[in-house]
Design a protein that fits this description.
The complex is a heterodimer of chains A (608) and B (167). Chain A has 24 helices and 2 strands. Chain A has 608 residues and is mainly α. Chain A has 3 domains: 232 residues, Cytochrome Bc1 Complex, Chain C; 66 residues; 204 residues, no CATH class. In chain A, strands 1-2 form a two-stranded antiparallel ribbon. In chain A, helix 23 crosses helix 24. The longest helix of chain A is centred in the first third of the chain and has 33 residues. In chain B, the strands form 2 sheets. A 6-stranded antiparallel sheet of chain B has the order 1-9-8-4-3-2, with no helix packed on it. Chain B has 167 residues and is an alpha+beta fold. In chain B, a hairpin with a 2-residue loop joins strand 2 and strand 3. The chains are: A mainly alpha (608), B alpha+beta (167). Chains A and B meet through helix 3, helix 4, helix 5 and helix 10 of A and helix 1 and strand 3 of B.
């Protein structure tokens, strides 16, 4: 064996290389305070390893980036762990970098002859932050997409070259395939390459000038191996443990939720994403911009950070004077405190903003829903994941309702998205529309004229309302029982998914109810048509009441003779007047009817 | 002692990302192709009565990692009438290395354009020096009502003498 190593050493000289690497002198002996550089190197090693493996499963294009990340996260073995490590380590490295930097400044490790190494270090800091910024976009989810739009628009305000820089960065006039290919090439090629060069220079210069020993020295000098290496290895293990704690935090804290890095809904330029925020360590810059109105943004985005960076670069020269070194420390402390204060202000502003909270909830809801849809038996279509969300009643229904219906109607007292509209309700509350419970309320003398039903409309004192208040209130117990059957029969017309079981169970009751309607003992068909053409009908048809077809027709044209005719109160004719297209009406109707894909169904409903 | 501990700690720290990465890297080994059912490929009327093989695309739902595309070609087969309404199906992939074989109508045989494997009209090996270790892969066929020809489409491992389905 020894002869083999001798042979190898003769050809390569590896022994002197290993000796050089491991027997570096540590003045004053090994200490825990020297671990930061090694911990960072370990962090970079982990990012390279995890990044290369992620690369093997990632697809950088607008139609497949989110989908491939979804697949890594949810389908591939240990994919969530791999993503989690890469994501959490990026966060932790930012903290480690700041700590390392603080130590260098406080110890005056930037002083001659180490100025150039200090600049290498600053360059490394810049590259690592650029890696975070470019990596944030790669999943092509709503969060990364909107945050990157903001970041690149800020680059666009740079005087003179801004618009070109922006266009070159995003690869065209708008965000798309080439934004991803460029960001990916930066993230996985250019920047890591630059990082390697800078680290090589950083370590070479560090070795050339030796460690900046912290005084007073407690022990005699020692070689790097093994004591300092042990401390560095333990530090690396601690960093890895911290990363694992970050990944498993939802379990450890009991908060629940997916492990690893988040993945919001796929990027969609047509879906505003008000919850867009940069990574927490850029939040102070984000907050800073709020104080620069209009075109003065360039001061907050470019000039002020530029001045700060210039002072950092000048630190080795300033540090030549006693006072200068103090200035550097105070400057760094003030800068960090300022950044911390701005970060807190940004957090606080979001916590206190009801709009942000709603946006956040909607974003979480969409992200969760996306996981359900992508995991359904129909899977992700070739057109990509975003189309699943665009065609999903569960997500689009409430949005459409809030926008087009909630100025008059309510859904459980709200606008469908959890907000409370400013104006009071002036039409029926549609939560549970056409269910037996909802119909029971309509036929309840105490409720028919309240704002949950006809209260806010001109039908408040119409025939139906009067019939319920005057006649139904005097029903005998036998008639009440008949009414239960009638309600079940009308509700069964809707064919609601949520009531399918009850409808099957109560087939006899429903059949009796239909008979009661047909024989007109309850006077329904005096005004309503049921199961046969009726030219004299003056109220909404009961055939197919609440079914998909019936509701689409009603929303499309409530003033049609089949529904309210001339009696239609202010409800717009959504299809007839081209307020909404057929797809949107279908989505809101499906949502009102509780008809959307639920996990665990053998087959997702084919889209209508 | 310190040296030993340093080696253990460093290895443990590095093992976590490497293990996660290997999980993702080797994921394909744990994946299985779905399907395996009969697919409608053609009708009897589309097959020449004289028993000349004809190539047809096989259209099915293709699941490719995250995307699921219904109604796309997933492969092709040669169909040939034998004795009236009986039909034989051969996968077009050469069992040698997976090139798509051509039918040479003049010589009445299949020939692989890559390494010149020759197969008879029934798919059998006709050349003793054939690079292919086995005949063309026959597939199960059903002729259903209305003359519909349904094939149980499968791919098999290349280069082996035995016909081993890719699962």
């Amino acid at each position: 064996m020894n002869r083999l190593f001798d042979w190898l050493d003769h050809r390569t000289g590896y022994r002197s290389l290993v000796h050089e690497a491991l027997h570096e002198n540590v003045p004053g002996g090994s200490r825990w305070r020297y671990i930061w550089g090694s911990a960072l190197t370990f962090g970079i090693f982990v990012q390279f390893i995890t990044g290369l493996f992620l690369w093997m499963a990632y697809s950088p294009s607008a139609g497949s980036a989110w989908e491939s990340v979804y697949y890594i996260q949810n389908e591939m073995t240990a994919g969530w762990l791999l993503r989690g490590i890469h994501h959490s380590m990026a966060q932790l490295m930012t903290v480690l970098l700041v700590l390392h930097f603080m130590q260098v400044v406080i110890d005056g490790a930037y002083k001659a002859p180490r100025e150039i190494n200090f600049w290498f270090g600053l360059g490394l800091l810049g590259v690592v932050l650029a890696l975070s910024l470019t990596g944030y976009l790669l999943p092509w989810d709503q969060k990364g997409y909107w945050a990157t739009r903001v970041a690149t628009n800020i680059a666009g305000v740079t005087p003179l070259i801004g618009p070109w820089v922006q266009r070159i960065l995003i690869g065209g006039p708008d965000y798309g395939h080439h934004t991803l290919t460029r960001f990916f090439a930066l993230h996985a090629g250019w920047l890591p390459g630059l990082l390697v060069v800078l680290i090589a220079g950083h370590i070479y210069l560090f070795r050339k000038h030796g460690l900046t020993a912290a005084e007073p020295r407690r022990k005699a000098d020692e070689p790097f191996w093994p004591d300092q290496v042990l401390k560095d290895a333990v530090a690396s293990l601690a960093v890895m443990a911290a990363v694992l704690v970050m990944i498993f935090w939802p379990r450890i804290s009991g908060a629940g939720g997916p492990l690893g890095a988040d993945l919001s809904a796929p990027a969609d330029p047509s879906e505003l994403y008000s919850a867009a925020r940069p990574e927490w360590y850029f939040l102070f810059l984000f907050q800073l911009l709020k104080y620069f109105p209009g075109e003065s943004e360039v001061w907050g985005a470019i000039v002020l950070p530029g001045v700060g960076i210039s002072i950092l670069l000048a630190m080795p020269f300033l540090g030549r004077w006693r006072l200068g070194h103090r200035f550097n420390i105070v400057f760094l402390a003030t800068g960090l405190a300022g950044a911390a204060a701005l970060t807190l202000l940004a957090w606080r502003a979001d916590r206190l903003s009801p709009e942000f909270q709603v946006a956040r909830r909607m974003a979480d809801r969409e992200a969760e829903r996306m996981m359900v849809l992508a995991g359904s038996p129909l899977g992700i279509p070739p057109s990509g994941g975003a189309s699943l969300l665009r065609q999903d009643p569960f997500i689009q229904g409430p949005k459409l309702f809030a926008k087009h219906c909630s100025s008059c109607h309510r859904w459980g007292g709200e606008d469908g998205q959890g907000g409370i509209p400013r104006d009071p309700a002036s039409a029926a509350d549609l939560k549970g529309f056409a269910t037996r419970e909802w119909l029971a309320g309509l036929l309840d003398p105490a409720r028919v004229a309240t704002s949950n039903y006809f209260g806010g409309t001109k039908l408040s004192d119409g025939k139906m309302s009067r019939f319920v208040r005057k006649e139904v209130s005097r029903f005998t117990p036998a008639q009440r029982e008949e009414l239960t059957g009638v309600l079940a029969a009308i509700s069964a017309e809707a064919g609601l998914r949520g009531q399918a079981k009850a409808d099957r169970r109560d087939a006899a009751l429903i059949a009796r109810g239909r008979e009661v309607i047909r024989t007109d003992s309850m006077r329904c068909t005096e005004c309503h048509a049921f199961r046969k053409a009726d030219e004299d009908a003056s109220a909404p048809e009961l055939t197919g009441y609440g079914s998909r077809e019936w509701l689409i027709a009603l929303v499309g044209d409530p003033a049609h003779a089949r529904f309210y005719g001339k009696r239609n109160d202010r409800m717009p004719r959504f299809a007839a007047d081209q307020v909404l297209d057929a797809e949107s009406i279908g989505l809101v109707v499906d949502w009102l009817r509780g008809d959307w894909y639920e996990p665990g169904e053998p087959h997702a409903r084919a889209s209508h | 002692m310190a040296a030993c501990c340093a080696a253990v700690a460093a290895t443990a720290a590095a093992a976590v990302p490497v293990a996660a990465g290997l999980g993702v890297l080797t994921d394909p080994v744990r994946r299985h192709v779905g399907g395996g059912g009969f697919l409608k490929v053609a009708t009897l009327a589309a097959l020449p009565e004289d028993g000349t093989p004809r190539k047809f695309p096989v259209v099915a739902t293709r699941v490719d990692a995250w995307s699921r595309s219904p109604g796309v070609p997933v492969g092709a087969v040669y169909l040939r009438r034998v004795q009236g309404a009986r039909v034989e199906a051969l996968n077009v992939s050469c069992p040698h290395a997976g090139c798509s074989v051509d039918f040479d109508a003049d010589r009445h045989q299949f020939r692989c354009p890559c390494h010149d494997s020759l197969f008879g009209i029934d798919g059998g090996i006709t050349d003793r020096r054939s690079p292919s270790a086995r005949p063309l892969d026959a597939l199960e066929v059903q002729v259903r009502e209305g003359g519909e020809v349904w094939v149980r489409f499968q791919n098999f491992r290349a280069g082996t003498a035995q016909k081993i389905p890719i699962a």
